[in-house]
Structure formats: structure tokens, C-alpha cells
């Protein structure tokens, strides 16, 4: 079993100027067997996307299907198909059981796009409407591949530092890790590690930049602390990793000052105006889709699990992990109303600016071409958020 290093891989590709070559044309999925689905009732005019949006809204994710992207898969209606060859799922875009008049194509990232970044892929393939772009990646590509986020499915990042409670029963959080001499194993281009060092929470000599996503390092030396995802490793290590099969302890990086929004759906900055009519209708639909998923995640989880199984790339995603992720998003308030707008899916401009101010120096030192005098409104907007869509 292997686990992804999603954020770091994307940033590494950005800093290396990764460009994916080859045909970027759309695919033609094989139809699912069985009878054709019955026609759906049309959506009301406020949710009727035909005419306002492209006939097929194409979304590029940074990784394969997972609960982090569930709001997209929630929108795929009856008759949707899984294209194993091209690693995508496509079908009618449905809002609350009603046909919006357009189709949705959700494309996988990672190996499916040669581990290119989402901005690189979107600037290569102009047929892509939206993509999932972490705040730190949006900062890193702001000068040459500017992106503007319009909807954040999660308000807090699920990234964590985790440890073995049997090896360190005295640890309660990241500050305790920093008070020790234990190694903190992170991916090569992690940008939360420099933040933790700058805040004095861990020591520079503790950082070991060798994490690849595989569990072997942690399993063979449980005295270390290691990066991970609350939506993934907390479940897989305890329930699905034969060489471990016990709980781990953790702290969210978001709870110690890491302000990144995880994969908010973003458009190319220059497309914000031309797509404004579409986004005014689409973004509230995305907000409600996230709300609907959190209320009843089962059907969408099954679709994502089936897609991962059909893609057969080595990435694993079980129903157990999917249900755990949906539960954790609610219990840990990863998916929560944005304090600045009061709405699910909004983004706090002050927090985005704090991320820019905090992360720009380390990104620049790593070779990123950060836009001079970058402002929050350059990379995120609440213009299309419906403040009435809230998570109770």
C-alpha cells in the first residue's frame, strides 16, 4: 500500500517548471451496462447552467478520487461513466436531483497527468474550467500561472504531524515534538516545516526531508514524527496497514498556524471575468453539493471507490477510508463555515493574505516566481459564494 505526498509533489513540480506534453483532448468513456437512466427533471432557472457555462464543465484534480474532492463527485448524476483509460469520471451535472443542462468531467491528477501541477495542466489545456489548487501552490505560481480560487470545500487543511503514542506517551502536540530530539520526517519540498521552524515549534536539525508517502520509515522507527493526512493515515495505519494495525496520535498543522486552504476550486485568473456568469450559478451549487455529501456521503463514496478500483494505478481508497474522511471532515471542522462570510466554501481574505506573507519568503528561496506585491484578492475571491449556504 502506498500513500500520496500530494501538496509537496505539486509544489515541487511548480518549482521545477513541470510541463506535461502530449494530447490534452477529451475522452470518450465506455457506457455503463444496463438500462438507460430515466430523464431527470430540469433544474430551476437559478441553477440552469446551460448557456451560462461550457457544455461540459471540466475539472482537474491534483490527485485521484478522494473525499477531499467529494463535492464534485456528488454532482455526477445517473448515467455517469468511469473512464479507466483516461482516469476520469463524466456524467450529467445534477443539482439536488435535477438536471442543470450541462455535463461534468472530473479528471484525476497525479500519475494521470504525469505529476504535473494543476496550474501547469490548466495553462496547457484550455478546455479545463476549474482545478483544485492549494493556497501555497497558488502563491508559488502567481507570477507565471496565476489562479484565482472561487470555492473552498474544506476550511482547514487535513495535513497533520503524527506519532506513535507508545513511543511518546508524553507528547500532546507539535510543541512537545519540538521539545524533544526526535526526527520530523517530511517530504522534500514541504513548506509547513520551515514555518514550524520559524515559529520555534521544532528545531532545524529535527527536520528530515525524506518522506515519500510510504509507511516503511514510520513502521521501522516509531520514534519519529511524520507528516500525513487526518483524512487518510489515521484510518489506514490503524485498520489497513498489516505491519502497524494500531492507532496513531496527531495534531493538525492548521491548528498551529498553517493557513493554507486545501485544494479550493480555482480558475485561470484571466478567466474570472468571462466565466463570471457561469460561476455565479455554479459556485452555490458546489456549496450545496458539499453540504449534501457531508449529510449523506455513502453513494458518492461508493462512486469514488469504484473509480479508484477501475483506474488501478496503485493508489488505494476503500469505503472505510472514505467514510472515515467524511466523518473527520465534520468532527474536526475541516469542512466548516468560513468566519469572514459565514458560508460553507468561503475564504477569509485576511487568512489568505497571512498565507502569502508567511509562505512567500520560503517559496521564493526555493525558486518560485511569486508575483510582486501579491494580494489576497489576486488568488481568492468570495464574489460567487452564497452566504445562505451554511453547515449547521
Task: Summarize the structure in words.
There is one protein chain. The chain is α/β, with parallel strands linked by helices and 392 residues long. It is 31% helix and 14% strand. It has helices at residues 6-15, 70-74, 118-124, 135-140, 174-178, 192-198, 216-220, 233-240, 276-295, 298-311, 319-331, 349-365, 376-379, and strands spanning 56-60, 81-83, 88-95, 98-107, 130-132, 147-151, 159-163, 184-185, 207-208, 225-229, 249-252, 265-268. The strands form 2 sheets. Strands 2-3-4-1-5-12-6 form a 7-stranded mixed β-sheet, sandwiched between helices. A 5-stranded mixed β-sheet has the order 9-8-10-7-11, with no helix packed on it. 50% of the residues are buried. The model is unreliable at 12-35 (pLDDT under 50).
Given helix and strand content, the structural type is alpha/beta
Shape: globular
Assembly context of the chains:
single chain
Segments where pLDDT lies below 50 for 5+ residues? 12-35
Mean pLDDT: 91
SSE ordering:
HEHEEEHEHEEHEHEHEHEEHHHHH
So how many helices? Answer: 13
User: What value does the Rg take, in angstroms?
Assistant: 20 Å
The major β-sheet equals: 7 strands, mixed
* DSSP, total strands: 12
Roughly what percent helix? 25-40%
Structurally, how many domains make up the residues?
2
Amino acid at each position: 500500500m502506498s500513500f500520496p505526498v500530494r501538496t509537496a509533489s505539486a509544489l515541487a513540480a511548480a518549482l521545477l517548471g513541470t510541463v506535461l506534453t502530449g494530447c490534452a483532448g477529451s475522452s470518450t468513456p465506455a457506457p455503463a451496462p444496463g438500462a438507460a437512466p430515466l430523464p431527470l427533471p430540469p433544474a430551476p432557472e437559478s441553477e440552469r447552467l446551460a448557456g451560462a457555462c461550457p457544455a461540459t464543465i471540466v475539472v482537474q484534480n491534483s490527485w485521484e478520487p478522494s473525499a477531499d474532492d467529494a463535492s464534485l463527485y456528488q454532482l455526477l448524476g445517473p448515467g455517469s461513466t468511469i473512464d479507466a483509460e483516461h482516469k476520469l469520471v463524466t456524467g450529467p451535472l445534477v443539482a439536488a436531483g435535477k438536471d442543470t443542462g450541462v455535463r461534468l468531467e472530473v479528471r484525476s491528477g497525479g500519475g494521470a497527468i504525469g505529476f504535473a501541477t494543476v496550474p501547469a495542466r490548466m495553462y496547457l489545456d484550455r478546455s479545463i474550467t476549474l482545478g483544485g489548487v492549494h493556497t501555497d501552490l497558488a502563491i508559488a505560481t502567481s507570477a507565471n500561472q496565476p489562479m484565482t480560487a472561487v470555492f473552498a470545500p474544506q476550511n482547514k487543511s487535513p495535513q497533520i504531524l503524527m506519532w506513535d503514542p507508545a513511543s511518546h506517551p508524553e507528547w500532546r502536540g507539535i510543541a512537545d515534538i519540538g521539545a524533544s530530539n526526535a526526527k520530523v520526517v517530511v517530504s522534500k519540498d514541504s513548506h509547513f516545516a520551515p514555518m514550524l521552524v520559524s515559529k520555534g515549534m521544532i528545531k532545524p536539525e529535527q527536520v528530515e526531508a525524506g518522506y515519500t508517502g510510504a509507511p516503511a520509515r514510520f513502521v521501522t522507527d516509531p520514534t519519529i514524527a511524520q507528516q500525513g493526512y487526518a483524512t487518510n493515515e489515521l484510518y489506514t495505519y490503524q485498520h489497513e496497514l498489516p505491519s502497524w494495525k494500531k492507532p496513531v496520535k496527531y495534531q493538525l498543522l492548521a491548528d498551529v498556524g498553517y493557513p493554507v486552504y486545501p485544494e479550493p476550486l480555482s480558475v485561470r485568473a484571466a478567466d474570472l471575468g468571462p466565466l463570471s456568469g457561469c460561476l455565479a450559478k455554479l459556485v452555490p451549487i458546489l456549496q450545496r453539493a458539499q453540504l449534501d455529501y457531508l449529510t449523506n456521503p455513502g453513494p458518492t463514496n461508493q462512486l469514488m471507490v469504484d473509480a479508484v478500483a477501475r483506474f488501478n494505478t496503485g493508489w488505494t481508497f476503500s469505503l472505510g477510508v472514505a467514510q472515515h474522511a467524511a466523518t473527520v471532515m465534520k468532527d474536526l471542522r475541516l469542512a466548516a463555515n468560513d468566519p469572514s462570510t459565514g458560508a460553507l466554501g468561503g475564504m477569509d481574505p485576511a487568512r489568505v493574505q497571512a498565507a502569502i506573507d508567511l509562505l512567500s519568503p520560503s517559496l521564493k528561496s526555493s525558486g518560485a516566481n511569486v508575483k510582486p506585491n501579491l494580494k489576497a484578492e489576486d488568488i481568492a475571491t468570495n464574489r460567487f459564494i452564497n452566504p445562505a449556504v451554511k453547515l449547521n
